Amino acid sequence: MSTTDADLSRLVSHALRHQPWLYELELDDEGWVPIDQLIEAIREQGGVWASVDRTALQNMLATATKRRHEIDGDRIRAIYGHSIPGRIRRRPATPPSRLFHGTAPDSWSAIRSEGLIPMGRQFVHLSIDRETAVSVGRRKSADPIVLSVDSVAAAAAGVTFYEGNEVVWLADQVPAEFVAVAD
Questions:
Q1: What Cα–Cα distance (Å) separates residue 126 from each residue in 59, 68, 100, 180?
Q2: Which PANTHER family match (predicted)?
């Protein structure tokens, strides 16, 4: 039996986003961990994971449909999606003028009153286009709604945005006044 790049990506995401302590990994304040430590932790899972190496990680990154992880020299991190305790430090950035968020229709009532909040994650995840927002929203509903975020007005009011990757932006939270159902 062998593993796929998608399988490896799920395991790496679990280790770097959600439960690094299960793999005896210690993330720094920006979420980085030495690649050699991650490889050792993966190999300790045994079975198909025993042969994972740096090349396997690089292939996983090269074939990914979404950029969820990044390598910088001898370290690797998950770019976004963290649910770990503590806060991953991000650098503020200027977002596009409009961002989108896909979700289940029954969530709109709460969002309309409370705004977008990160729920079990460290940040609210936003998309640069409707298509990505629909794709994300389908994880929660077969017929998701797409919300539009006026990121210029939100940023002017003090909301901090962070670039996740080419299509994902992050925010600590987005007040309801800057969120509407997309046209």
A1: 27, 14, 5, 13
A2: PUTATIVE PHOSPHOTRANSFERASE, TRNA 2'-PHOSPHOTRANSFERASE 1
pLDDT by position in tens, the chain (length 183): 467 899 999 999 999 988 888 888 888 888 899 999 999 999 988 889 999 999 999 999 999 888 889 999 999 999 887 777 777 778 899 999 999 999 999 999 999 999 999 887 778 989 999 998 998 898 889 999 999 999 999 999 999 999 887 888 999 999 999 999 998
pTM for this entry: 0.67
The size of the chain, in residues, is 183
Determine the Cα–Cα distance for residues 75 and 68; give it in Å rounded to an integer: 14
Q: Which CATH architecture has domain 98-181?
A: Alpha-Beta Barrel (3.20)
Is 5-78 a CATH 3.30.70.2190 domain?
no
145: nearest Cα among 122, 98, 120, 179: 179
